Amino acid sequence: TLGTQTDYRDGEAQTDPYSPEYVVPSGSVPELLTLATLTWGRGLPAGLDEVEMVERAREKRAWEATLPAMDSASQIAKRRKMMDDMERKEWAFREQEIEKLQEVRLEVLKKLLRRREKNQNELDAKRLDDHWQNHQKAKEEKMKKRVHDCALMLRKLMAKRNNVMGKLERRDIIKEYTDFASQTYAPLSRIGYFPDNHSERYVVKNFYLNTFAGLCELEASLPDSVTQVKVKAPKPKYATTKTGFIKRSARLEMDLAQVHQ
């Protein structure tokens, strides 16, 4: 039931696969020793490239076994020619490897350029969208200001047209009290009147509602039907018909009650 906490985590405890010790007999060169440069994570586990490298090494060893001995001038010339041909093949293979590597790097560079171009396009589109939104907001603000100024000028023109000659008019009290939109009933706050400042004078004050004696008098004047509520019990509904069958509504209520339980 007890656990052990070590000083090392699992990742530090992992090691490379075990490679046992070996002894090479004198005069023999095992082919497996040619792969000693491959280690775990660097060529192992082997892939297609490693298999091709092993095949090339075998072909080269087979080619070295076919080289002529250096015992005469003709054999030396033949050996030099074979070595020149092999060197050309190795250089051609190396050029192919370099071209493949360059193609891979070129593809990676193309992907990076496409990604950068895509990100730049998205950033440009976002900037244009923000710029357009700002222009739209400014346009709407200008339109609102123009509509407000237009309404203000129209009110001024209407006021001037009502008094074209500039004559002074006497106050018509009857007209003010018959028009519920006049300054008497609905004064404007821009002329210095604020109705909310004296709102308490509109509160209804009643003797029957604000005093105990008034409440008692109001209660005594009410009829008995208001103070004494009479509730009539509902008549039960018959669930069966005259012939003795259960009604469909009653059967549905029974089913619902059973489902509810």
UniProtKB/TrEMBL annotation:
Q: Name one Pfam family in it.
A: CFAP91
Q: Does the keyword Cytoplasm apply?
A: yes
In this chain the CFAP91 domain maps to: 4-156
* UniProt KW keywords: Cell projection, Cytoplasm, Cytoskeleton
Classify the main location: cytoplasm
Q: Is the keyword Cytoplasm assigned to this protein? A: yes
GO cellular component terms listed in the entry, alphabetical order: axoneme
Localization of this protein: Cytoplasm, Cytoskeleton, Cilium axoneme
Q: Which domain of life is it from?
A: Eukaryota
Homology family: Belongs to the CFAP91 family.
This one is known as Cilia- and flagella-associated protein 91
Species source reads: Anhinga anhinga (Anhinga)
